[in-house]
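stage 2 :: seqdesign
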Protein backbone atom coordinates (compact mmCIF):
# COMPACT_ATOMS: atom_id res chain seq x y z
CA UNK A 1 0.00 0.00 0.00
CA UNK A 2 1.39 3.37 -1.01
CA UNK A 3 1.97 6.11 1.52
CA UNK A 4 0.20 9.41 0.81
CA UNK A 5 1.84 12.68 1.78
CA UNK A 6 -0.60 15.10 3.43
CA UNK A 7 -0.05 18.80 3.92
CA UNK A 8 -1.66 21.05 6.50
CA UNK A 9 -4.27 22.20 3.98
CA UNK A 10 -4.97 18.64 2.84
CA UNK A 11 -5.55 17.47 6.40
CA UNK A 12 -7.81 20.41 7.18
CA UNK A 13 -9.85 19.84 3.99
CA UNK A 14 -10.15 16.11 4.73
CA UNK A 15 -11.19 16.88 8.29
CA UNK A 16 -13.83 19.44 7.31
CA UNK A 17 -15.30 17.13 4.63
CA UNK A 18 -15.42 14.22 7.10
CA UNK A 19 -17.08 16.41 9.77
CA UNK A 20 -19.76 17.54 7.31
CA UNK A 21 -20.59 13.94 6.39
CA UNK A 22 -20.56 12.91 10.06
CA UNK A 23 -22.95 15.70 11.05
CA UNK A 24 -25.31 14.89 8.19
CA UNK A 25 -25.43 11.25 9.29
CA UNK A 26 -26.67 12.30 12.73
CA UNK A 27 -29.00 15.12 11.73
CA UNK A 28 -30.70 13.35 8.78
CA UNK A 29 -30.29 9.59 9.31
CA UNK A 30 -33.43 8.49 7.45
CA UNK A 31 -32.89 10.97 4.63
CA UNK A 32 -29.28 9.90 4.44
CA UNK A 33 -30.32 6.40 3.40
CA UNK A 34 -31.22 7.79 -0.02
CA UNK A 35 -28.32 10.24 -0.19
CA UNK A 36 -25.72 7.98 1.40
CA UNK A 37 -24.74 6.12 -1.75
CA UNK A 38 -24.30 9.37 -3.68
CA UNK A 39 -22.13 10.97 -1.00
CA UNK A 40 -19.90 7.94 -0.75
CA UNK A 41 -19.81 7.70 -4.53
CA UNK A 42 -18.58 11.31 -4.73
CA UNK A 43 -16.05 10.68 -1.95
CA UNK A 44 -14.80 7.49 -3.63
CA UNK A 45 -14.62 9.20 -7.02
CA UNK A 46 -12.58 12.13 -5.68
CA UNK A 47 -10.22 9.93 -3.67
CA UNK A 48 -9.76 7.50 -6.58
CA UNK A 49 -9.07 10.26 -9.10
CA UNK A 50 -6.57 12.01 -6.81
CA UNK A 51 -4.83 8.76 -5.90
CA UNK A 52 -4.72 7.75 -9.58
CA UNK A 53 -3.20 11.10 -10.53
CA UNK A 54 -0.59 10.77 -7.79
CA UNK A 55 0.27 7.22 -8.91
CA UNK A 56 0.94 8.46 -12.46
CA UNK A 57 2.49 11.86 -11.84
CA UNK A 58 5.08 10.92 -9.24
CA UNK A 59 8.54 11.30 -10.83
CA UNK A 60 7.41 9.71 -14.10
CA UNK A 61 7.14 6.28 -12.50
CA UNK A 62 3.71 4.58 -12.64
CA UNK A 63 2.65 2.67 -9.52
CA UNK A 64 0.47 0.05 -11.20
CA UNK A 65 -1.09 -1.41 -8.06
CA UNK A 66 -2.30 2.00 -6.89
CA UNK A 67 -3.44 2.92 -10.40
CA UNK A 68 -5.51 -0.27 -10.75
CA UNK A 69 -7.14 0.33 -7.35
CA UNK A 70 -7.89 3.89 -8.40
CA UNK A 71 -9.53 2.73 -11.63
CA UNK A 72 -11.64 0.20 -9.69
CA UNK A 73 -12.65 2.99 -7.31
CA UNK A 74 -13.80 5.16 -10.22
CA UNK A 75 -15.81 2.26 -11.70
CA UNK A 76 -17.49 1.54 -8.36
CA UNK A 77 -18.27 5.24 -7.89
CA UNK A 78 -19.89 5.43 -11.34
CA UNK A 79 -21.97 2.32 -10.57
CA UNK A 80 -23.10 4.04 -7.36
CA UNK A 81 -24.50 6.92 -9.41
CA UNK A 82 -26.33 4.60 -11.82
CA UNK A 83 -27.99 2.32 -9.26
CA UNK A 84 -27.45 3.49 -5.67
CA UNK A 85 -29.78 1.06 -3.93
CA UNK A 86 -28.44 -2.07 -5.63
CA UNK A 87 -24.87 -0.99 -4.91
CA UNK A 88 -25.59 -0.13 -1.27
CA UNK A 89 -25.00 -3.66 0.02
CA UNK A 90 -21.92 -4.22 -2.11
CA UNK A 91 -20.57 -0.84 -1.11
CA UNK A 92 -21.07 -1.68 2.56
CA UNK A 93 -18.85 -4.74 2.24
CA UNK A 94 -16.28 -2.85 0.18
CA UNK A 95 -16.16 -0.03 2.71
CA UNK A 96 -15.72 -2.56 5.50
CA UNK A 97 -12.80 -4.21 3.69
CA UNK A 98 -11.26 -0.84 2.76
CA UNK A 99 -11.53 0.46 6.33
CA UNK A 100 -9.95 -2.67 7.80
CA UNK A 101 -7.07 -2.73 5.29
CA UNK A 102 -6.46 1.01 5.62
CA UNK A 103 -6.63 0.83 9.41
CA UNK A 104 -4.15 -2.05 9.56
CA UNK A 105 -1.77 -0.17 7.23
CA UNK A 106 -2.03 2.97 9.39
CA UNK A 107 -1.36 0.93 12.54
CA UNK A 108 1.67 -0.70 10.93
CA UNK A 109 3.00 2.71 9.89
CA UNK A 110 2.35 4.19 13.32
CA UNK A 111 4.18 1.38 15.10
CA UNK A 112 7.03 0.81 12.64
CA UNK A 113 8.15 4.34 11.72
CA UNK A 114 9.43 5.87 14.95
CA UNK A 115 10.47 9.15 13.27
CA UNK A 116 6.98 9.73 11.80
CA UNK A 117 5.45 12.94 13.19
CA UNK A 118 2.03 12.59 14.82
CA UNK A 119 2.26 8.79 14.68
CA UNK A 120 0.04 8.46 17.78
CA UNK A 121 -2.80 10.18 15.95
CA UNK A 122 -2.18 7.96 12.92
CA UNK A 123 -2.37 4.91 15.21
CA UNK A 124 -5.65 6.12 16.74
CA UNK A 125 -7.06 6.72 13.27
CA UNK A 126 -5.99 3.21 12.24
CA UNK A 127 -7.61 1.65 15.30
CA UNK A 128 -10.94 3.37 14.60
CA UNK A 129 -10.75 2.43 10.90
CA UNK A 130 -10.38 -1.26 11.80
CA UNK A 131 -13.16 -1.03 14.38
CA UNK A 132 -15.44 0.75 11.89
CA UNK A 133 -14.77 -1.88 9.21
CA UNK A 134 -15.56 -4.74 11.57
CA UNK A 135 -18.76 -3.10 12.82
CA UNK A 136 -20.24 -2.34 9.41
CA UNK A 137 -19.08 -5.66 8.01
CA UNK A 138 -21.46 -7.40 10.43
CA UNK A 139 -24.33 -4.84 10.33
CA UNK A 140 -27.65 -6.44 9.26
CA UNK A 141 -28.23 -4.88 5.84
CA UNK A 142 -30.89 -4.08 4.52
CA UNK A 143 -33.35 -2.86 7.10
CA UNK A 144 -32.45 -1.30 10.40
CA UNK A 145 -28.84 -2.14 9.70
CA UNK A 146 -28.72 0.65 7.15
CA UNK A 147 -29.45 3.16 9.92
CA UNK A 148 -26.77 1.49 12.04
CA UNK A 149 -24.38 1.80 9.12
CA UNK A 150 -25.19 5.48 8.70
CA UNK A 151 -24.64 6.13 12.42
CA UNK A 152 -21.34 4.22 12.34
CA UNK A 153 -20.23 6.19 9.29
CA UNK A 154 -21.19 9.36 11.15
CA UNK A 155 -19.12 8.38 14.19
CA UNK A 156 -16.15 7.37 12.03
CA UNK A 157 -16.30 10.58 10.00
CA UNK A 158 -16.53 12.73 13.13
CA UNK A 159 -13.51 11.01 14.69
CA UNK A 160 -11.52 11.12 11.43
CA UNK A 161 -12.49 14.76 10.91
CA UNK A 162 -11.53 15.81 14.42
CA UNK A 163 -8.19 13.95 14.28
CA UNK A 164 -7.40 15.38 10.84
CA UNK A 165 -8.24 18.94 11.88
CA UNK A 166 -6.25 18.66 15.14
CA UNK A 167 -3.26 17.27 13.26
CA UNK A 168 -3.58 19.95 10.58
CA UNK A 169 -3.74 22.73 13.16
CA UNK A 170 -0.69 21.35 15.00
CA UNK A 171 1.40 21.23 11.82
CA UNK A 172 3.72 24.05 10.85
CA UNK A 173 3.72 25.63 7.40
CA UNK A 174 5.54 23.43 4.90
CA UNK A 175 5.47 20.35 7.16
CA UNK A 176 4.03 17.13 5.70
CA UNK A 177 3.00 13.78 7.15
CA UNK A 178 2.51 10.34 5.66
CA UNK A 179 -0.91 8.67 5.61
CA UNK A 180 -2.44 5.69 3.88
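stage 2 :: out
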Amino acid sequence: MEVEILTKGGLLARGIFALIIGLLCFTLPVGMQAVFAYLLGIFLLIISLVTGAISIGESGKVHWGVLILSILGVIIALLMFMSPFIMFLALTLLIAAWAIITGIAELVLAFSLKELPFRVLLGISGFFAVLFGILIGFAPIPGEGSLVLIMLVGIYCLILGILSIITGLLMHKGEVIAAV
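stage 3 :: structure notes
- The chain has a mean pLDDT of 79.
- Residues 29-57 form the longest helix (29 residues).
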